[in-house]
């Protein structure tokens, strides 16, 4: 586990990150209701997701790593909100931080880099869905100017129960 003083670098995600990013995401699939995926992925199954986030454009993947040796501490993405053309200036954003890297500012670094990268894009709004309860994610989003706009009640079923999702919105 990296020490508190380990320097964290944030950069665009690349093909070589696929295995580590898949393992990180699978932790949240197996252990939490933060994602509503219910079956783990192989790296090959996750490859289309990685490739849908190029180094430029409105749909990005930013990765936080330690310097040496390089270890992935988390990632953030901006993805299409919906597929219909009129939604093109809206993105859904998300952050996943490795459990051992929590409460170290990694999520803040990731969102800072993501929103800097998106600043030159033709985007109007960012949205984020937060499965409840998740106070840390709500605080992170509010720090970045997101405001709660509504909650879908019992919208997802995982681990034998229903979960609410709070939706947040941020002007870009």
UniProtKB/TrEMBL annotation:
Keyword Secreted included in the entry's annotation: no
Keywords: Acyltransferase, Transferase
Source species, domain of life: Bacteria
Pfam families: Acetyltransf_4
UniProt signal peptide: none
N-acetyltransferase domain boundaries: 8-172
Protein name: N-acetyltransferase family protein
Originating species: Streptomyces massasporeus
């Amino acid at each position: 586990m990296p020490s508190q003083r380990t320097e964290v670098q944030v950069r665009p995600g690349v093909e070589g990150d696929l295995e580590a990013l898949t393992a990180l995401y699978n932790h949240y699939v197996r252990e939490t209701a933060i994602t509503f995926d219910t079956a783990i992925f192989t790296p090959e199954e996750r490859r289309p997701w990685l490739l849908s986030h190029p180094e430029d454009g409105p749909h990005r993947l930013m990765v936080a790593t330690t310097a040496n040796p390089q270890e992935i501490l988390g990632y953030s993405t901006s993805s299409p909100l919906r597929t219909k053309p009129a939604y093109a200036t809206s993105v859904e954003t998300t952050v996943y931080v490795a459990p051992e890297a929590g409460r170290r500012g990694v999520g803040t670094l990731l969102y800072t880099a993501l929103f800097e990268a998106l600043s030159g894009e033709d985007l109007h709004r960012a949205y984020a869905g937060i499965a409840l309860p998740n106070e840390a994610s709500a605080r992170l989003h509010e720090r970045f100017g997101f405001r709660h706009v509504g909650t879908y009640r019992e919208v997802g079923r995982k681990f034998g129960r229903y979960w609410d999702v709070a939706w947040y919105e941020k002007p870009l």
